[in-house]
Amino acid sequence: MTRPLQAALIATALVSSGTAIAQDRTAQARINYEAVLAGAKQIGQLTAQEQADLVEFDRRLRERMFDDRRPSSRCVDAEIAREGGSVSALARRLIDMKCREAGG
Questions:
Q1: CA gap 67, 54 in Å, rounded
Q2: Which residues are CB-neighbours of 31 under 8 A, at least 6 positions away?
Q3: Are 11 and 33 in contact (CB under 8 A)?
Q4: Does pTM surpass 0.85?
Q5: 12 in Cβ contact with 4 (< 8 Å)
Q6: CA 2, CA 7: separation in Å to the nearest integer?
Q7: Torsion 7-13-16-21 (CA) sign
Q8: Where does the signal peptide begin and end (predicted)?
Q9: What is the largest CA-CA distance in the chain?
Q10: What is the C-alpha to C-alpha distance for residues 45 and 51, in angstroms, rounded to an integer?
Q11: CA distance 53 to 6
Q12: Mind giving me the DSSP string for the chain?
């Protein structure tokens, strides 16, 4: 087996195991989140890593719940904000065209 092939296989294995660990931590964060909401666990009972995972899980959950607009709407708002909050009619038409391509 050549060295580049060995390196590629090792890198693939490391990425796969890292992804599996991240998925396990996300699953555990969900379990802890539900347990805390139900009163079965207290935040102080969790390890520092579990608390950090719980905070990240909550942030992602709130982010997803907060912005339920279509991707094109989010794109338009982001582009207008990037331009300083006010754009000309021509710039707005360009933004609309760009954002329509982004996943309308």
A1: 20
A2: none
A3: no
A4: no
A5: no
A6: 9
A7: negative
A8: 1-22
A9: 61
A10: 9
A11: 33
A12: --HHHHHHHHHHHHHHHHHHHHHHHHHHHHHHHHHHHHTSS-GGGS-HHHHHHHHHHHHHHHHHHH--S-HHHHHHHHHHHHTTS---HHHHHHHHHHHHHTT-
What would the pLDDT profile of 13-69 be if each residue is shown by its tens digit? 555 555 566 678 889 999 998 999 899 999 899 999 999 998 998 888 887 766 667
Q: Hey, how many other C-beta atoms are within 10 angstroms of the C-beta on 78?
A: 13
Q: What is the pLDDT of residues 81-97, one digit of tens each?
A: 998 888 999 999 999 99
**The two structure tokens encoding residue 13:** 């294995």
